[in-house]
Amino acid sequence: MEIFTRIGGTYMRIGYACLTVGVPDTEQKSCVMRNASVDRLSELVSFNLKALEHIFDYNKKNDIRLFRISSDIIPFGSSPVNQLKWWELYQQEFQLLHDKIISNGARVSMHPGQYTVLNSLEESVVFRAIEDLNYHTRFLDALGVGPEHKIILHIGGAYNDKERSIERFMQNYNKLEEAVKQRLVIENDDRSYNILEVLSIGRQLKIPVVFDNLHNSVNPSGEEHPEVYWINECQTTWKMKDGPQKIHYSQQNPLKRAGSHSEKIQTNEFLAFCNRLGRDDLDIMLEVKDKNLSTVQCINCIDQNRVMK
After folding, report:
1. In the chain, which residue ranges form alpha helices assigned H by DSSP?
2. Is residue 143 classed as helix, strand or coil in its secondary structure?
3. Which DSSP letter does residue 84 get?
4. Eight-state DSSP code of residue 22
5. Is 243 strand, coil or helix?
6. Which of 12, 110, 150, 199 could join 280 in a cystine, given CB atoms 3.0 to 4.6 angstroms apart?
7. C-alpha–C-alpha distance, residues 63 and 14, integer Å
8. Whole-number Å distance between alpha carbons of 65 and 56
9. How far does Cα 181 stand from its chain's mean position?
10. Which pLDDT score, from 0 to 100, does residue 5 have?
11. Pick from 239, 237, 247, 186: which is nearest to 214 by CA?
């Protein structure tokens, strides 16, 4: 059963992605391919799972119940270079991580990187993308968590023919294993696929849609609607089995290109955003450079706002 976070009278969960800032024993390690021996990979997997345990402990201590696990947690996880059956070798470690997730009422996710492109023109790229999605699914399965713990994916490239590229995404989506489909959610991006296009794909394939506010500001749909409108539209794609609706929130770095995440979250802007939502039954993943530091500040900001009311 889903256990929701209670923060200052709300069930909203606020989290961060992949790494912590200033927290001992939470860094993760990898290696170059030529050094990826069985012994070295085994050492790295053990080290990284222990680091993840420390992150979970930190999150619980700080009332953080939403976290994105790094795709690099298992070095070369989707590559034939890694022949370890890590999901079997580290069952005890995964059970411990599972218990920490459940005891904290937490929700975890993963987000494959820019090279996981399901609608590529190259069959080899599509093959690797499918293998990568299988790896992410296997990791979440090893944690023993349900389908509400998601894998976030962008649609991919436009390849000068967006209509055919969308068709290719849909065709390749249908090649995925059911276990992957149960976890997959799709997100609007800042260059190719706006929220209107992603909603259309999500509704046709019955995939939940994650709304990203910064991507929407950089790559708008052309239809003039406030963010809350799109968030509510995305809500219709989330079913009970998917868990609470999840969105991504970030702020623009004024010194970098459009779409670049800020160093930290301005809490007054974040609070105004939350107040505009008019609801607290969703999860907000912060995408920000200082990671956990802004997350703690935003949680405290929501807390204080509730007390004042």
Report:
1. 38-61, 86-89, 91-103, 123-142, 162-173, 178-183, 195-205, 213-218, 227-235, 267-277, 292-308
2. coil
3. -
4. S
5. coil
6. 12
7. 9
8. 9
9. 15
10. 37
11. 247
Q: Which two tokens stand for residue 23?
A: 């927290």
Name, in order, each residue with C-beta under 8 angstroms of 87's C-beta and a sequence gap of 6 or more: 94, 138, 139, 141, 142
Residue with tokens 């649609």: 155
CB 295 within 8 A of CB 257: no
d(CA 190, CA 183): 23
Gyration radius from the chain CA atoms: 19
CB 143 within 8 A of CB 41: no
Three-class secondary structure assignment of 39-61: HHHHHHHHHHHHHHHHHHHHHHH
What are the structural domains of the chain?
Answer: 13-308 (3.20.20.150)
Ranges of the chain with pLDDT below 50? 1-10, 307
CA proximity to 185, closest of 148, 210, 157: 210
pTM: 0.94
Between 227-235 and 195-205, two packed helices, what is the crossing angle to 10 degrees? 10
The answer to whether the beta carbons of residues 62 and 296 sit under 8 Å apart is yes
What would the two tokens of residue 33 be? 């391919």
The 10s digit of each residue's pLDDT in 137-194 is: 999 999 999 999 999 999 999 999 999 999 999 999 999 999 999 999 999 999 999 9
Percent helix / strand / coil, the chain, rounded to 5: 45, 10, 40
